[in-house]
Design the sequence.
């Protein structure tokens, strides 16, 4: 019995993602989450452009939606948001809900697409982060949080999304490794060669 | 059929996540104790990692800060040079050493609250996110007796309140935060009201509840511009901590109440040190049927 067999037997027929056992993927996700969170809390609390820092937990959430699909991606995004919520002054669950909804939507929209170009990933990260920050602010406004929706919001959305897009080439391989997804280009289906008329004979 | 089933499962999972988030939001709003404790434990567990990373990455981040705030530093340097020249021209060279010492004492000594134990804290970092500019972390926590709700001050006046207290650190919500409501008293008129920070302007505070516009139209009943504003005796915080000075007084839209804009006494941005008043806050909220403050 190999180490991965118990996990496999628990799943009973569920298809495991390529790249390792559930426990291994969980461990890798924890590592990536923690690295993003610690970087956000330390380095990027000081390194800002026009007073705006990147949103690394949102970056992890967007990439999880892109690489793991809507089902797994939304759960990973929820966890990233929940960890981020622990450190934010807004109520617990606000970032988690925003990240999960956007990662699910993004994952659903792009499920059939191939993100094998950096430019496409970069653009999707920009759009995804913009959506996450906006949904977070709007949801915060709905639950009565002051100071989230004001003149600063468009600036924060644009700069944070730009930051995340710039950082996506570095973060994408880490998230892809963590979610156990192979390089995106492997997803492309090879076109079957036309059947040889000789064989039919 | 299989595709539809998978799609339903997928929606079902998202629904579960949203319900979980809604439950957490509700519990957090209601101040569910175990949830706060769990968050505090997570922060405590990660604190050594965050501190170690801060020690390693801090100098690198400093380089960025220096690069992009060079002009600010230069203008600050020039301002300080002017200040030195001004002091020199006042012929205080002989007593400069003594004077500097006394000014240092003034900067760290809080004189407006008597009989309250206090601790000086170092500000570890300002906001970590993009929407919490009015939140800072300090290096005092539960071990030193800090609990949520305690008042944080500098020698200039009220800075904010302790929002969360972990084992070795705490977060402080600054008075400039629009969601932090503070009960204040206007010394000129003796009226009490409720105020909060102004979004987008960390130097201002507005008192918009509890102050009636004079029915007679006698404007002499309004507080004078420049008159002091302090914390009220019925607020959550010790009384008579300076909050600021009245900058303007206007009628509200309905014309029934006053909107008093206050210039905050304490600069709540880029603070290096603050003082925590170790006075356990009152449980009573500043609004309610028994509150000294009229409802907004």
Sequence:
């Amino acid at each position: 019995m190999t180490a991965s067999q118990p996990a496999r037997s628990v799943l009973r027929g569920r298809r495991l993602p390529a790249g390792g056992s559930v426990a291994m993927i969980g461990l890798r996700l924890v590592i990536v989450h923690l690295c993003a969170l610690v970087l956000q809390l330390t380095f990027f609390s000081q390194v800002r452009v026009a007073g705006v820092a990147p949103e690394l937990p949102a970056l992890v959430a967007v990439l999880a939606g892109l690489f793991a699909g809507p089902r797994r991606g939304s759960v990973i995004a929820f966890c990233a948001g929940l960890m981020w919520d622990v450190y934010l002054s807004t109520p617990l669950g606000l970032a988690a809900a925003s990240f999960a909804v956007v990662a699910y939507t993004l994952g659903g929209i792009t499920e059939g697409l191939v993100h094998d170009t950096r430019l496409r990933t970069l653009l999707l990260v920009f759009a995804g982060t913009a959506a996450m920050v906006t949904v977070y602010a709007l949801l915060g406004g709905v639950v009565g949080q002051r100071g989230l929706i004001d003149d600063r919001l468009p600036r924060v959305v644009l700069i944070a999304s730009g930051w995340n897009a710039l950082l996506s080439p570095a973060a994408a391989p880490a998230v892809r490794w963590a979610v156990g997804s192979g390089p995106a280009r492997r997803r492309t289906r090879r076109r079957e060669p036309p059947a040889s008329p000789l064989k039919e004979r | 059929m299989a595709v539809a089933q998978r799609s339903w499962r997928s929606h079902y999972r998202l629904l579960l996540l949203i319900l979980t988030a809604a439950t957490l939001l509700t519990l957090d709003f209601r101040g569910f104790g175990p949830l706060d404790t769990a968050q505090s434990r997570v922060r405590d567990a990660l604190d050594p990692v965050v501190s170690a990373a801060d020690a390693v990455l801090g100098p690198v981040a400093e380089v960025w800060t220096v690069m992009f705030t060079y002009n600010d530093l230069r203008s600050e340097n020039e301002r300080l040079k002017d200040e030195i020249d001004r002091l020199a021209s006042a012929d205080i060279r002989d007593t400069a050493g003594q004077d500097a010492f006394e000014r240092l004492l003034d900067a760290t000594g809080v004189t407006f609250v008597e009989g309250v134990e206090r601790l000086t804290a170092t500000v570890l970092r300002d906001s970590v996110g993009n929407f919490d500019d009015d939140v800072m972390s300090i290096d005092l926590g539960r071990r030193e007796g800090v609990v949520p709700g305690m008042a944080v001050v500098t020698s200039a006046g009220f800075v904010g309140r302790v929002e969360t207290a972990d084992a070795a650190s705490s977060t402080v919500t600054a008075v400039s935060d629009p969601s932090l409501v503070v009960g204040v008293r206007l010394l000129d008129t003796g009226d009490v009201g409720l105020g909060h920070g102004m979004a987008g302007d960390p130097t201002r505070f507005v008192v918009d509840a509890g102050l009636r516009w004079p029915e007679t139209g006698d404007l002499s009943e309004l507080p004078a511009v420049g008159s002091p504003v302090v914390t009220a005796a019925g607020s959550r915080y010790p009384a008579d901590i300076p909050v600021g000075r009245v900058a303007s007084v206007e009628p509200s839209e309905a014309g029934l109440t006053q909107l008093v804009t206050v210039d905050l006494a304490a600069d709540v941005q880029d603070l290096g040190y603050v003082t925590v008043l170790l006075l356990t806050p009152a449980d009573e909220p500043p609004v309610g049927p028994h509150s000294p403050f009229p409802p907004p």
Q: What stands out?
A: The first helix of chain B runs from residue 2 to 29. The longest strand of chain B covers residues 242-251. Chain B touches chain A through 51 residues (CB under 8 Å). Residues 284-289 of chain B have pLDDT under 50 and may be disordered.
